[in-house]
Write a structure and sequence with these properties.
Shape: globular
Distance between the termini: 68 Å
Helix content: 55-70%
């Protein structure tokens, strides 16, 4: 099989999408830029906190990648109102993938004690009871932690949580109930 490409194939565009790194030639570019800028202003900090609470080791990169993903797919969104939900789902998915990657890497590395790393600034800002809660939250299985953070920190409905996590509403109820029970037990044990 030859890797040669004919001159016709090179000169004929495969899709109507612009090449990577080139601006699109349609009039939607200013709308996309304004929409992304508004979304960034409103959602960067909440998404950073979401990634941190879900256990991301590098939440800034997770959020940056999420904004990049939504920037690339902006024209395919049905409406600009769905951008926040898409962004939230992307943060959850990327955090999950990063945690899985780290677990795989750790299996092949020399074992070391795993501790949830917090910055000195965030530790200083948390009261003692909040530090106990965050530590207990980090000990939960990832699905339970995600369900609890999305429900009680972001205040999302079950259907929105199900969409963000890519599971059914019934599974959301199960993960939330089990997470609350485990969190309650862990909190009582730490007091």
């Amino acid at each position: 099989m030859s890797n040669a490409v004919s001159a016709d194939a090179v000169s004929t565009p495969i899709s109507t999408q612009p090449a990577l790194g080139q601006p699109p030639d349609d009039a939607a570019q200013p709308d996309r830029e304004a929409g992304i800028a508004a979304l960034f202003d409103a959602q960067y900090t909440p998404m950073l906190r979401l990634a941190t609470l879900l256990g991301a080791d590098d939440p800034e990169n997770i959020v940056a990648e999420s904004f990049y993903q939504i920037y690339r797919k902006w024209r395919r969104l049905r409406d600009a109102g769905s951008a926040e939900a898409y962004l939230r789902s992307t943060v959850c998915n990327l955090t999950r993938m990063r945690i899985r990657h780290l677990q795989t890497a750790r299996r092949h590395a020399v074992p070391a004690p795993v501790e949830w790393v917090t910055s000195a600034e965030s530790s200083a800002l948390l009261r003692d009871d909040q530090q106990v809660l965050v530590a207990a939250l980090q000990d939960l299985p990832s699905r339970q932690r995600e369900a609890l953070v999305l429900r009680h920190w972001l205040g999302l409905k079950e259907s929105e949580i199900a969409q963000a996590m890519g599971i059914t509403a019934g599974s959301v109820k199960t993960h939330t109930a089990r997470g609350i029970a485990a969190l309650t037990k862990a909190m009582e044990a730490r007091r």
